[in-house]
Amino acid sequence: MPSDEREMLYKDINVDEVIEMALSDHTAFQQIEHLYGLKEDQVKQLMRKHLKRGSYQAWRRRVRQFSDRRQHYK
Questions:
Q1: This model's pTM is above 0.90
Q2: Half-sphere exposure (CA, 13 Å, Cβ side) for 25?
Q3: Inside any domain, residue 37
């Protein structure tokens, strides 16, 4: 997706709220998609853009570990 399209997509949403939901262990990607229309890959792109590299990597690692242990996690 070109940069301009991404900017327009994120323009209409509260990025801070999406990030807070994505960082929460109690919010699934499906809930974010229902509220904001962002698919899992789009949430990952948003997180990569707005978090520091180490914070993003720690978040992805945590999501992967939880999803390995729980069938219905993010």
A1: no
A2: 8
A3: yes
